[in-house]
Amino acid sequence: MTYFKNVTNIQYEGKGSTNPLAFKYYNSEELVGGKTMEEHLRFGVSYWHTLTGNGEDPFGAGTMLRSWNHYSEMDLAKTRVEAAFEFFEKLNVPFFCFHDIDVAPEGKSLKQTNENLDTITMMIKDYMKTSKTKLLWNTANAFTHPRFVHGAATSCNADVFAYSAAKVKKGIEIAKELGAENYVFWGGREGYETLLNTNMNLELDNLARFYHMAIDYAKEISYTGQFLIEPKPQEPTKHQYDFDVATALSFLQKYDLQGNFKFNIEANHATLAGHTFEHELRTARINGMLGSVDANQGDTLLGWDTDEFPTDLYATILAMYEILKNDGLGKGGLNFDAKVRRGSFDPEDLFHAHIAGMDSFAIGLKVAYRLIEDGVFDNFIDERYHSFTEGIGLKVVEGLANFHTLEAYALQNNPIRNNSGRQEMLKAKINHYLLDSLSNVTV
Question: Which residues are catalytic, by number?
Fold first, then answer.
């Protein structure tokens, strides 16, 4: 059966194309700095938004028109696998991602849930044998069901802690079975609403114990994928323990977990934390913790996670700048944790949305590469901090200064001269490189 009848394989047609179902800037085989765009960007499709999202919101029912929606339970799950791989292949993406309940329904017991997962896992594995699309990462949904009302690994109920461990154990087994390059921990309800009823110390200790158990089990079954933590503030609990990269990094360092995890950074989560996307990427990168990216964007007029497809070219340029400076994402990739708007309900809209996101990151890649090659920011930053490469500044850097020597230097009463930060000029440089890139087809 064909699920996307009105769409053929999406091709690169160049910026002059007027075909809405074609790439204008993303050419998977084009070389940028010795690597293809596909190798740089490692795009992934999110199973949840693409295959299971129905368009409902807090004020209205679902709107999505999907040919598989008349099925239910395991029949629906199997049909979605068929539709998923048709979508992956027509879009020509190298990766996809999923939560456990995205691909298989929960049963009346954990045993039945696991049996459902086993059936669908084997079906996905069969499709992967003849498809280029591989599993970037999978994860366990430990936030939707009412049992997780007080959290999962941080729940006040030990039975829930045990149930959560069983779900993650199964998830790691699936990751190994399907060759997932990563396994993600997203603490959807790992936080608290009020300290009046919360033992914060126990909850954080238990979360660390949970992660150590996961590491031990991965070693036990020889799963070698990268473990990722996805920081997110505010939603759904008021105080999330993984609020942002800096908070989560502090947690990992305290509990001797840093060497076993990296971060999966989401753009919309960064803005919810009061940061820019590039800030979170930079914080992870300079600490050697940048692992993968959930590529989306939020609406600055709305204070929640809108999960829009990325079309802000400034954001994609600055994101790719950090990723290139990181020497790529290793086992990670750019997963579109994004959903079409409620009014974009036709099946073809899924392709329009992904094309827009992929083209946007292709532009970001090319502009960021040129900015780095030309040393636009590096040269300016080197000059701005030049005072720390000689004299008293060099002594500070080399650990040869103390308050006595610094006071003696300051008492010389030498005039202090600061240089302009030239923020506006640097932003204009981005505009120049962006517009120049759009007028040229080669790097």
Answer: 99, 102
